[in-house]
Amino acid sequence: MITKIRAANLPSSLFPPWFSSLLVPPPFFPALPVDTSVGLSKSSQALKLDLEEKLFGQHLAREVILKALTGFRNNKNPKKPLTLSLHGWAGTGKNFVSQIVAKNLHPEGLKSNFVHLFVSTLHFPHEQKIKLYQEQLQKWIRGNVSSCARSVFIFDEMDKLHRGLIDAIKPFLDYYEQVDGISYRKAIFIFLSNAGGDLITRMALDFWKAGKKREDIQLKDLEPVLSLGVFNNKNSGLWHSGLIDRSLIDYFVPFLPLEYKHVKMCVRAEMKSRGFTIDEEIVKRVADEMTFFPKEEKIYSDKGCKTVQTRLDFH
Ligand SMILES: Nc1ncnc2c1ncn2[C@@H]1O[C@H](COP(=O)(O)OP(=O)(O)OP(=O)(O)O)[C@@H](O)[C@H]1O
């Protein structure tokens, strides 16, 4: 599913018109604008605050993302780019968090020249064009990292990304000091997918049924779950790509399914961002319109907070 934000910030064709200028190999890359605020835009404290205030119901994702980003930014000499793999049900905040991270590094977020979002089904829809996509993608990454070492690349719908394209980006994710004269070690790659989302949900449901608190779910509880749903799942996209075998993913970040109370929090946040006074009656009405599963218990929103914005329009 493509959100408004993504569609609004993406070129209509695969790459913008000036892309062809990047086809010249280094050192002849044209000078793209240089971001002087790179890495200094906000402190880790600001990221922490953003995650605490804006991201609802995701205590594990909050913890892992903060740890990963803080560690990476404090490391003056990283040995490889930072690679995060975000997993979870639809509408639970994977794109939302990627945007928070991107904004933290580059204040303009998705609008920055140094943040790049690829959506598999939008940008790489035709299997027969894989060779072309591979070439363009590699040149795009190379060109942009040579312009800004701390470029951020977000790949949405990773589970739908053709294996050939994962192979194309693999060299950039590795521990090489340089590839063709360029170091990729300060770049950040974020992969988003629904793979493992059903298993994460089942785990959350088991906790709920056992009367345990959601916040008591720990990363170690989810490791075997992710291992089954992602690491050893031939359909997850990552499995047969060699990314996992070669330890090229630094952090797996699980997103839990969102409950009624989280949906209400999303409604309030949306009202606030539109400058409305919070009206609890409307908050309840919007949340009540969402559908919840499993059939019997009705605990988790089946679209997370995804349709909150449009539903609010009706009220
Ligand atoms: N955990 C959350 N906390 C706060 N807001 C959220 C959360 N999850 C979703 N939202 C809101 O819902 C919108 C849609 O969520 P988002 O696009 O991040 O979902 P997603 O997990 O990427 O879904 P998909 O897998 O379908 O792409 C976000 O822009 C945000 O406004």
UniProtKB/TrEMBL annotation:
One of its GO terms (cellular component) is endoplasmic reticulum lumen. It catalyses: ATP + H2O = ADP + phosphate + H(+). It comes from the Eukaryota. One of its GO terms (molecular function) is ATP binding. Keywords: ATP-binding, Endoplasmic reticulum, Glycoprotein, Hydrolase, Membrane, Nucleotide-binding, Nucleus, Signal. ATP binds at G88, W89, A90, G91, T92, G93, K94, N95. The keyword ATP-binding applies. The keyword Signal applies. Its main location: membrane. Residues 80-223 form the AAA+ ATPase domain. InterPro entries: AAA+_ATPase, P-loop_NTPase, TOR1A_C, Torsin, Torsin_1/2. It is found in: Endomembrane system; Endoplasmic reticulum lumen; Nucleus. Belongs to the ClpA/ClpB family. Torsin subfamily. This is Torsin. It comes from Monodelphis domestica (Gray short-tailed opossum).
